[in-house]
Inverse folding.
């Protein structure tokens, strides 16, 4: 049945006076976290005796409810492909002040018909839902893979899951993306979008593990809508260009809203100063001397629990093997509630915190993961607190009682 459907599309395309006009729509980033990296969709415009058909195949639709961020955190967020009128799609971006750039695909009749067939099949009820993955399976990678499969000279049996990049590339002997040579990592690729939201930047950097420090090849780089648009400009089938010139359908009228001067690094530097000053001022106080240390242990312990949760208890592929656990240690939650006066006499209680912290400080320069700059004030506070506890209970055991 699918073969007959595809054959019918080919016959229609061959006998019609004008092929459907298929183009890629690239939308500029928004201020919300889910729109921060932009969006990609496919537009199909067709005019015939029955009138005008102008629809958008939109892979970026999800149900926004109270559990959205929880599903996103757990890696269990489902997106779906819908067909919607172009004017509805355009109105959404007009109202939000975001730019829309259009790139026409210059496919031949067979490739055009194959792409339309794939889109229609993908939009069917049984195929339209997919499990969202920010780096490997999103609106941009879906558009990328649909175009790749339409250009493939042979049939594939991939269904509508997101295949490994090497599988798609094996279908494309004449596909030559020449931009983005694979010199940056996934973490570095998203940094330009996060500079305007430093707290989101800090949270994402803490959450993402070692896989995000892999170097991105040209094909993988297309997970970002902007990068996909740039790579499509270099798309050729032999000597034939497959993408026309970019055309701005809507200008960008709103920019990123910066979050101000109180970035994580600034806040943690201020915290570090208060931590050191407070530790000195209250050094002889029975109750206040180690309150800053307990607060620090509590905060880093909570961050450590987050790292463990994302690493071991979610479906994310990119939050595993997270070396932030060397300083953001869940064991700190245990330490923060223990009496230092007795625990310090048994230093093995501190070993689960101090040994990983020492490894981080000594070998951070050669660890394969990149760390956020705001981590360092927290690490400095940890070192200062360790010195304070050691001096109070080991070097001068009678100086303070708790």
């Amino acid at each position: 049945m699918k073969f007959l459907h595809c054959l019918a599309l080919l016959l229609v395309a061959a006998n019609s006076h004008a092929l459907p006009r298929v183009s890629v729509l690239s939308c500029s980033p928004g201020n919300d976290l889910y729109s921060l990296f932009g969006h990609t969709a496919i537009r199909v415009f067709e005019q015939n005796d029955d009138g005008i058909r102008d629809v958008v195949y939109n892979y970026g639709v999800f149900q926004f409810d109270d559990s959205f961020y929880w599903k996103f955190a757990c890696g269990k967020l489902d997106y779906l492909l819908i067909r919607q009128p172009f004017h509805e799609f355009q109105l959404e971006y007009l109202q939000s002040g975001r730019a829309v750039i259009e790139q026409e695909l210059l496919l031949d009749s067979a490739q055009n018909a194959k792409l339309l067939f794939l889109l229609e099949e993908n939009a069917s009820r049984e195929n339209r839902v997919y499990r969202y993955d920010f780096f490997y399976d999103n609106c941009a990678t879906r558009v990328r893979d649909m175009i790749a499969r339409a250009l493939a000279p042979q049939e594939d049996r991939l269904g509508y899951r997101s295949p490994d990049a090497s599988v798609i590339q094996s279908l494309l002997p004449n596909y030559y993306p020449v931009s983005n040579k694979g010199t940056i990592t996934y973490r570095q690729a998203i940094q330009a979008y996060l500079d305007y939201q430093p707290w989101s930047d800090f949270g994402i950097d803490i959450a993402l593990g070692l896989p995000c420090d892999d170097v991105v090849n040209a094909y993988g780089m297309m997970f970002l809508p902007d990068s996909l648009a740039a790579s499509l400009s270099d798309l050729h089938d032999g000597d034939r260009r497959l993408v026309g010139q970019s055309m701005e359908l809507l200008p960008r009228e709103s920019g990123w809203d910066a979050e101000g001067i109180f970035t994580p690094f600034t806040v943690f530097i201020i915290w570090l100063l208060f931590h050191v000053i407070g530790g000195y001022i209250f050094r002889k106080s029975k109750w206040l001397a180690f309150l800053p240390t307990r607060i620090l242990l509590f905060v880093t312990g909570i961050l450590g629990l987050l790292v463990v949760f994302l690493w071991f208890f979610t479906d994310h592929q990119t939050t595993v093997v997270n070396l932030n656990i060397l300083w953001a240690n869940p064991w700190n939650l245990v330490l923060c509630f223990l009496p230092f006066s007795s625990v310090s006499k048994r230093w093995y209680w501190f070993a689960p915190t101090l040994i990983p912290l020492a490894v981080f400080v000594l070998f951070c320069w050669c660890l394969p993961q990149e760390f956020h700059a705001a981590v360092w004030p927290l690490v400095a506070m940890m070192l200062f607190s360790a010195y304070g506890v050691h001096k109070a209970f080991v070097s001068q055991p009678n100086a303070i009682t708790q």
